[in-house]
Amino acid sequence: MLAGLGLGGPLDARPFTDAAGRTVAVPERPARILAAGPPASVLLYTLAPDRMVGWIRSPTPEEKLFLAPATRDLPVTGRLTGRGGTANVEAVLGLAPDLILDVGSTAPTYVSLADRVQAQTGIPYVLLDGHFEKTAESYRRLGALLGLESAAADLAGASEAAVADVARVIATVPEERRPRVYYARGPKGLETGLGGSINVELLGVVGARNVAAAGPGGIATVSPEQVLAWDPDVILTQDAGFRRGIAQDPLWSGLRAVRAGRVYQVPALPFGWFDAPPGANRLIGIRWLAQVLYPDLFSTGLEAATRDFYRRFYHVDLDDGQVAALLSGAAPGPKP
């Protein structure tokens, strides 16, 4: 009957409406799921690690320490979507998934990719919305897709609580006290997320002002002169070398953020807390970023929040050394 409706799929398939409004015939209980890109990989790992067919790329030895042991050595699948796609139809078929999951944009380009891959492979391909504000909704959709409604409801509720807890406090901060932030991507710190970019969504969630907000969205390379003109209150970076050297670099040392010691390295094990990828991994980043930007309002509790998040979402119990490693260079403290 589903085939007659143009849905295709196995005889035991059921119709599922994804976030792009596509009706896809999916297995009653998908057991082998291929993530199309990094955000999908994170969402799937947090809810159903036992159903993953592999990782987009092989986790590093450092990352593996923060992942459930049973998942650390899953095969590498490559990525189907986004920049730097490495998987192809033959590779996908060789992995024998019964479902492909993509989490991110539901724009026409990604809908077209989903339709094309599904037609070429015969494997149902589902799109979920990857915007941060849709995280709880995406958990509930994924739970319905996988038959894991109860577990998904728990993670969705935790997602909503994480946002609400921080939002209640930040609502008391007047506009003039909300810091101006520059997100320094790359080893030179001259790549950043412009206004509307999914990569800097957390800044808006915690009430910060992105100094690059005037741009049209997406990732862009900027000049040192532009950063000097912005003169941000806080700088965030993913690069440890950049953070270590910024105070001695004449291009950066005069900035107020550097002079005040407000340059922070984004925690990134096993996934980034702010970006990289822009997925559900950013939930722990809300609490971290709130403490970085408003240390007088969020002076304690980050360590406990980190342990709870990793236990609930990443299926690991952190020891004291792991918590310290995660927060090294990431929390308010001495100048870099």
Explain what the structure shows.
- With 336 residues, the protein is α/β, with parallel strands linked by helices.
- Helices cover 36% and strands 12% of the residues.
- It has helices at residues 38-47, 61-64, 89-95, 108-121, 135-146, 149-170, 201-205, 224-230, 240-245, 256-259, 283-293, 302-313, 320-327, and strands at 14-17, 23-26, 33-35, 99-104, 125-129, 180-184, 191-193, 209-210, 219-221, 234-237, 263-265.
- The strands form four sheets. Strands 8-6-10-11 form a four-stranded parallel β-sheet. Strands 3-4-5 form a three-stranded parallel β-sheet, with helices on both faces.
- The chain is globular.
| Tally of separate helices | 13
Q: What gross morphology would you assign?
A: globular
The overall average pLDDT, rounded, is 92
Helix coverage percent: 25-40%
Widest sheet: strand ordering: 8-6-10-11
**Could you list the spans in which at least 5 consecutive residues all have pLDDT below 50?**
1-8
Supply the helix-strand structural class: alpha/beta
* Largest beta-sheet details: 4 strands, parallel
Order of helices and strands: EEEHHHEHEHHEEHEEHEHHEHHH
Taking Cα atoms only, what radius of gyration do you get, to the nearest Å?
21 Å
Strand percentage: 5-15%
End-to-end gap: 64 Å
**Number of beta strands:** 11
